[in-house]
């Protein structure tokens, strides 16, 4: 059994840890609130752009090149994986990495190239036998990735797709739902899936007259759509990370509180036992003198 001194030392150390986890929870909650408003605003913008493109695609007379499959021309599959730069966020990183790994195993016969956003994903793949798949690592902090950086990355990816450097582009990210729920998600960005722009408004809405032609407008808007989707995925992942970290820190703070209660109870019992022992020694000594 631990002595009262050792128990007091443990209580002090766990109290310090509890203060740290409580502070981290407050920081995560503050950042979550800021990023959550950004992701919700970005969703509205993305949905509106999707609606506009739905009208444009429905008016096309022929299939646009960005919808065409390039599996035979370019058998390479490019994957963008978004993870966190830090840990202490529960199973957030592990869940999305395992989802990407499952996809890589399913595509074992294909050539895979990885673009990694976030230090945790980079550390995972550099230590394993899949290190050769890494084509690019973006060292910038995920939180500090602005739209200009995403725009440049999207431009490089679009040029690579047009030059047949790869036939498919998939992105793996964590979609934010609520503070308690986030879902590891994958999405094919290129080529765009044929059913992605099936417009329900075509049946009920009126016809649109485009100037210039619908194809010219699509050629201008599709790169912007890819940029927006990529930025949206980064914001979704960042929001999910802060939510996961907040939940993890709440759980850690609660666990620390429970441990302190248990140790305090043990300390009181040990102290009472020590006092009882001393009293018995005094009584025994007094009886021996009689």
Written overview of the protein:
By secondary structure, the chain is an alpha/beta fold. The protein has one domain: 3-Layer(aba) Sandwich (Pyruvate Kinase, Chain: A, domain 1). The protein has six helices and five strands, in the order αβαβαβαββαα. The chain has helices spanning 4-58, 92-106, 119-127, 147-162, 201-204, 214-289, and strands at 76-82, 111-117, 134-138, 168-176, 182-190. A five-stranded mixed sheet has the order 3-2-1-4-5, sandwiched between helices. Strand 1 (76-82), helix 2 and strand 2 (111-117) form a beta-alpha-beta unit. The longest helix has 76 residues, at 214-289. The chain is elongated and about 115 Å long. The model has no long low-confidence stretch (mean pLDDT 87).
Task: Summarize the entry for a quick read.
The chain is α/β, with parallel strands linked by helices and 290 residues long. It has helices at residues 4-58, 92-106, 119-127, 147-162, 201-204, 214-289, and strands at 76-82, 111-117, 134-138, 168-176, 182-190. The chain has one domain: Pyruvate Kinase, Chain: A, domain 1 (3-Layer(aba) Sandwich).
């Amino acid at each position: 059994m631990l002595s009262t001194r050792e128990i007091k030392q443990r209580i002090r150390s766990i109290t310090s840890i509890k203060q740290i986890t409580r502070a981290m929870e407050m920081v995560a909650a503050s950042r979550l609130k800021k990023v959550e408003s950004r992701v919700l605003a970005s969703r509205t913008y993305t949905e509106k752009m999707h609606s506009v493109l739905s009208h444009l695609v429905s008016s096309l007379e022929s299939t646009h090149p960005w919808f065409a499959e390039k599996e035979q021309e370019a058998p390479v599959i490019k994957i963008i994986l978004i993870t966190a730069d830090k840990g202490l966020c529960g199973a957030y990183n592990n869940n999305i990495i395992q989802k990407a790994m499952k996809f890589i195993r399913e595509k074992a016969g294909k050539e895979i190239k990885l673009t990694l956003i976030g230090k945790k994903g980079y550390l995972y793949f550099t230590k394993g036998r899949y290190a050769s798949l890494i084509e690019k690592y973006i060292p910038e902090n995920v939180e500090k990735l602005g739209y200009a950086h995403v725009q440049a990355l999207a431009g490089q990816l679009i040029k690579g797709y047009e030059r047949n450097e790869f036939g498919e582009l998939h992105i793996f990210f964590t979609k934010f739902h609520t503070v308690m729920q986030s879902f590891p998600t994958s999405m094919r960005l290129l080529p765009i899936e044929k059913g992605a722009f099936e417009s329900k408004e075509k049946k009920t809405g009126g016809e649109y007259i485009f100037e210039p032609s619908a194809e010219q407008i699509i050629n201008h808007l599709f790169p912007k759509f890819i940029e927006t989707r990529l930025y949206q995925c980064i914001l979704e992942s960042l929001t999910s990370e802060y939510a996961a970290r907040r939940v993890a820190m709440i759980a850690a703070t609660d666990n620390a509180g429970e441990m302190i209660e248990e140790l305090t109870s043990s300390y009181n019992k040990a102290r009472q036992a020590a006092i009882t022992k001393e009293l018995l020694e005094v009584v025994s000594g007094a009886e021996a003198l009689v």
